[in-house]
Each structure stands twice: as C-alpha cells, then as structure tokens.
Design brief:
Blueprint (H helix, E strand, L loop, with lengths): L1 E5 L5 E5 L2 E4 L8 H6 L7 H23 L5 E5 L9 H15 L3 E4 L5 H11 L4 E6 L13 E5 L2 H10 L4 E3 L4 H15 L8 E4 L1 H18 L10 E4 L2 H11 L10
Parallel strand pairs: 4-5, 4-8, 5-6, 6-7, 8-9, 9-10
Antiparallel strand pairs: 1-2, 2-3
Helix pairs in contact: 3-4
Length: 257
C-alpha cells in the first residue's frame, strides 16, 4: 500500500511498502492506475510479468496475516463521515456489538465509518483489522487498527474482505462502499460464495437504493425479485449482528473475555 501524509515541516510524503518518498519523489499516479492504463508504448511487454510477482506477494501477505483470524465480519462505510456524525456513532456501536458477539471486525482501515467500527471493536476487546489501499488522498490506517495489511491493488484487497468474513455490514457510504456491496452481492447471487449475509444499516439512507432496485431493476427484469432477498435492511445494530449469527450456525464465534 501507499499513503500520502505530511511530515512535521508540512512537506508531503508518500509511503509505498517500506519506502518513503518526499517532495519531487512523490509519484503522480498509483500502482493500480499504472497497471490499468494501457495507453502509450508497449512497455507492458516487459513490465507486466514482474507485476504478477507483486500481485502474488499481496495475496500471500494477506492470506498469511488473516488465515488464523477466526470468525469475522467486514464493515463498510464512508471515509468522509466526521467523528461527531450520528453515522460515526452508529459505526462504533456496530464494532462493539460484533466484538461482543465474538467476531473480528474487518474494515478498509481508513477514517470515517471505518475508523468508527475499528474503534468500537477495540473498545469492546475484539480484534480490529484494517485492509488499507494505496490512494493519493488518504493517509494510511486509522489508529484503532491492531492488525493492518496494506494493498496496492483493489482486487487483492477485495478478495480478503470476502474470504475471511462471515458476512458484510454496510454503513452509509459512497462509491467505494457501493462497489464493495455490489461486488459481494454479485458473488452471492452467482453462488460464488454461499451463506453470506449482506446487511445494510440505516433505512433513511438506503431506502432510495432499495426503491430503485425493487422499482426499476426488478420491473425491467434486469434482476429477479428473489435476488432482492439477498439484501437485508435494518436500523437495529443488534438485529444486524443476529442476522450474521443466524446465517451460519456452524460458525460459533469466540466471545472475548
């Protein structure tokens, strides 16, 4: 992962793995951008095979770090939610409730709703995990992450969100949250993953999305009405956690002492 931050003198510095870059050394593009940009010369003939090794290393690091995590739930939400927002308080309650139920809490490791969920998990004595991503406008993992894994590539990171979680809880969020939600929804709908509950918290925030799904997509036949049952909406944190627990009774989370 790479991250952009300011040093004590106000100069921007850029972290990519163990490397720190400052001033003129700060790159103008991200690793994902360089991978996906196919314009220009055919340099990719020489560089892409080596990128495969870097991609492989991200999967190896992620698998190694999370393999013994135990039952976990991935929590998504906006990085732009301020600390004094009711949505931040909601995220904190979600993190606490999941930890008390014995689940590790996995987030994207950033600020806002992600920080809130990590903070709640930490306060309740649970495992607080952050899966960070190289972005030019966010400054690394939030301080409430105990176990952090940094990624350069979105697709490697998103694999970890699904592979090591028993379900998703989705707080109010924007493009990134929607991307993660609909990718997971597609995996469940196509039976790539099974017994994977997707719970959205906040009926006022999410009701417009549900109306669009039921009113536009279902009416035009681009999704089946049965697919709508894959998503559950609630305002109750305890109900959200109960949905996760009831979805896979064979997985018994260990409650922290």
């Amino acid at each position: 992962m790479s991250e952009l931050d300011a040093d004590p003198e106000g100069e921007w510095e850029y972290h990519t793995g163990p490397v720190t870059l400052r001033r003129s050394r700060v790159p103008g593009t991200t690793t994902d951008q360089r991978l996906l940009d196919n314009k220009g010369r055919a340099d990719w003939l020489h560089t892409d095979p080596w990128r495969v090794m870097r991609i492989q290393s991200e999967f190896v690091e992620g698998f190694g770090a999370l393999a013994e995590l135990g039952p976990a739930v991935s929590v998504f939400g906006s990085a732009r939610i301020p600390v004094d927002s009711p949505h931040y308080t909601l995220g904190r309650e979600v993190g606490r409730a999941l930890a008390r139920a014995g689940y590790a809490v996995i987030t994207g490791g950033g600020p806002g709703a992600m920080e809130a969920a990590n903070r709640g998990a930490l306060e309740a004595g649970g495992a607080s995990v952050g899966l960070g991503i190289e972005l030019p406008f966010e400054a690394g993992l939030n301080p409430y992450v105990d176990l952090g894994v940094n990624f350069r590539y979105f697709f490697a990171r998103k694999t970890m969100f699904v592979k090591y979680a028993q379900g998703f809880i989705v707080l109010p969020g924007g493009f990134g949250t929607l991307d993660e939600l609909f990718e997971a929804l597609t995996l469940v709908q196509t039976q790539k993953v099974t017994s994977f509950p997707l719970v959205l918290i906040g009926s006022e925030y999410w009701s417009g999305l549900f109306q669009w799904l039921t009113g536009t997509l279902a009416e035009h036949g681009t999704i089946s009405r049965e697919d709508l049952a894959l998503l559950q909406l609630t305002d109750d944190v305890d109900e959200a956690v109960r949905i996760i627990i009831d979805s896979e009774p064979s997985v018994r989370p260990h409650r922290p002492e």
